[in-house]
Amino acid sequence: MSVAEIYETMAYGPAPESDAEALDWIAGHGGRFGLFIDGAFGDPGAMFDTRNPATGAVLAQVTQASGADVAAAVAAARRAQPGWEKLGGPGRAKVLYALARLVQKQARLFAVLESLDSGKPIREARDIDVGLVARHFYFHAGLAQLMEDELPGARALGVCGQVIPWNFPLLMLAWKVAPALAMGNTVVLKPAEWTPLTALAFADLSRQAGLPKGVLNIVTGDGAVGEAVVAADVDKVAFTGSTEVGKAIRRAIAGSGKALTLELGGKSPFIVFDDADLDSAVEGIVDAIWFNGGQVCCAGSRLLIQEGIADDFHDRLRARMAKLRVGDPLDKCIDMGAIVDPLQKGRIEAMVAGCGGEVTQGDAPQGCFYPPTLITGLEPADPLMQDEIFGPVLVGTTFRTPSEAVSLANNSRYGLAATVWTENVNLALDIAPKLAAGIVWVNGTNMMDAAAGFGGVRESGFGREGGWEGLRAYVKGPDAKTLKPVAAVAAPDKAVVEAIDRTAKLYIGGKQARPDGGYSRPVWSPKGALLGHVGLANRKDLRNAVEAARGAAAWSRTSRHLRAQILYYVAENLSARADEFARRIGDMTGAKAKDAEAEVSASVERLFTWAAWADKYDGRAKGVPIRGVALAMNEPVGVIGQFAPDEAPLLGLVSVVAPALAMGNRVVTVASGAYPLAATDFYQVLDTSDVPGGVVNILTGDAVGLAAQMGGHMDVDAVWSFSSADISADIERESAHNLKRTWVNQGRARDWGDAAAQDFLAQSTEVKTVWIPYGE
Ligand code: NAI
């Protein structure tokens, strides 16, 4: 056939990529891989097969690590850690740079190996995965270089246990390993059982980059090995995978003091407005749901389309689907490769079977392939609209107005990503802040870059990977002392009762409320004087307080300037009552007058600090390598449950309430159990300072009794505890219900003389990354 004839027919011909080098590499290891521990491959142990899903052929045999193997890997990482950290940022930067260069030099081997092992099209592995891997190591080499200047005092966490999934095997390794190593940590990583080969190839390569032995260890195996890594003596766990396993991990390590980040599933909306460029939106859908066969945590898997264009759009989409080529992943002309494993294909089939909507499917060959699928006309509550399918299946419904689009989009337990397609920039920028998602793409989709944070809210997990914000997950501040429990002053043998009886109520929705249970307790001074009574809040009071906080959502939308003004006003009113507060602190704690006065003036100062920050915690405009910017916006977390510290009854309270308020959150704060009256006095100050009802809710009572309720409450977005009571484990374990963020002291003291602004700012905000077309 002549070239002219080919142009005439545009007939499709295969363009196969050779697998010879990748198979040679496997053969070079005898087709059997041991674990990579302490800089060397060990002898193969109990083996399992890893297969090419496109053909079913066995590619290699890989070791199922034992508990002892995991312990040995962690021990090697532990030994290597101090030396790696001492090497310093610039020293580590050189090794990360070498890794980036080596990935580039071996790019084709990695791409082919990835395609063989996972079934993803070579085009994607080559043009997207491997390029992003190299970019990630370059970027983090830069962060290591700058760390000492930009993150003064930050120290490595220690040994990180990292467990990754099969959908982007090498890219997920890069996302986990690069920031950990950059900040001076060492790593034990477990790749997914279906796709271990590129991690082993990377281990091979790391020796050439001069990575000291023990800094990176790879243990292969199934979920049991993942469990062993999580349970091992590691300082941090980083996990990407299913929400179900994420919850199990959250529970498993509750109270252990291990840091945790979770990147979990999603059901990300893809919203098309009626003014969108429809053909480009169709191409967007191709990238959203048929990229990697929809086996992408941030896949745009829920199509929300404005009613007036729905028929036209679906017609165009069906026409495009008919042209998608599904088949041999090593064929460079292929749009969609194999599903990672017959088990996963079975899961997809089971979910789609018997569904109620109108189903359109493209073509797919026999074997472990699944056709591109569109299902329209589903109710928002349909399981297929709610549950992650993790396959090439797009489900959809229609909407009429922008606000309906937002409420449908947010009608999900997930909150990873969202895509908005419109030619109207005002509309896009109006919708983006309203979406409950960690990432919003405007007129584009599935864009990722090392400079931009990636991660979600709600049951999509917490923490960000990439960018400066991703580093927080891999560093820690100075060591803190153990916190001694502070008990309430016991009833004296001989009570001094002078003043008129006074019972401080709870403060809920801007009103004083009697405790539902009808119980209260006396508060004694160390000298035996009865200072008053406080109510003992129960779970119903807590529910009411959360409801009030939810209802005060307008606070999150007020201008930062207004929030600053109100915090200044609180400071002013507290200052006017300084003597009274100082006396109260002295009476409750027995502190000397000058110390109590100092605590009040430090509290006023602290309010000034947070008023100052209210309008200054700017986001960043990230220079991502596309024609656009990624705006990292610091958004409020929402409703934060707080357990106030006991050490500094007023300063501690102000130090936790004010930053949350400054960043636009509403709080439910459980006052110090030992010294609650500073909090009940403080709400009177709030009442006179224009703080809207419901923004701050104050409960008094038993922190131990309330911790599990707060931790498990489905309408609370984050819980902080600085209490001296032993409640960290309860909060972390219960938080697994909706995977809320937790920030708990694990029995460690804090210096309340220090505003620790960066910590509080980060904990009071979620970074939403909004990708918008911009520039030339
Ligand atoms: P998974 O969450 O079970 O596996 C992810 C990783 O965790 C693998 O390395 C696995 O060996 C490990 N693992 C499994 N159980 C563990 C445990 N108890 N403790 C520690 N590590 C453990 O995902 P799976 O079964 O492969 O896929 C199931 C569903 O999960 C998919 O259909 C999809 O919906 C979702 N998924 C989501 C991913 C995402 O990136 N959001 C990635 C992979 C799966």
Structure notes:
The protein is an alpha/beta fold and 776 residues long. The protein folds into 3 domains: 20-263 and 471-476, Aldehyde Dehydrogenase, Chain A, domain 1 (3-Layer(aba) Sandwich); 269-445, Aldehyde Dehydrogenase, Chain A, domain 2; 503-627 and 636-765, Aldehyde Dehydrogenase, Chain A, domain 1. 41% of the residues lie in helices and 19% in strands. The protein has 27 helices and 33 strands. The strands form 8 sheets. A 10-stranded mixed sheet has the order 14-15-16-13-12-17-18-33-27-26. A 6-stranded mixed sheet has the order 9-8-7-10-11-19, sandwiched between helices. The protein has a 5-stranded parallel sheet with strand order 30-29-28-31-32, sandwiched between helices. Helix 8 links the parallel strand 8 (186-190) and strand 9 (216-218). The longest helix has 29 residues, at 122-150. It is globular. The chain starts with a helix and ends with a strand. The mean pLDDT is 96. The structure holds 1,4-dihydronicotinamide adenine dinucleotide. Residues 163-167, 190, 192-193, 222-223, 226-227, 230, 240-242, 245, 248-249, 264-265, 297, 347, 388, 390 line the site of 1,4-dihydronicotinamide adenine dinucleotide. 1,4-dihydronicotinamide adenine dinucleotide is lined by residues 163-167, 190, 192-193, 222-223, 226-227, 230, 240-242, 245, 248-249, 264-265, 297, 347, 388, 390.
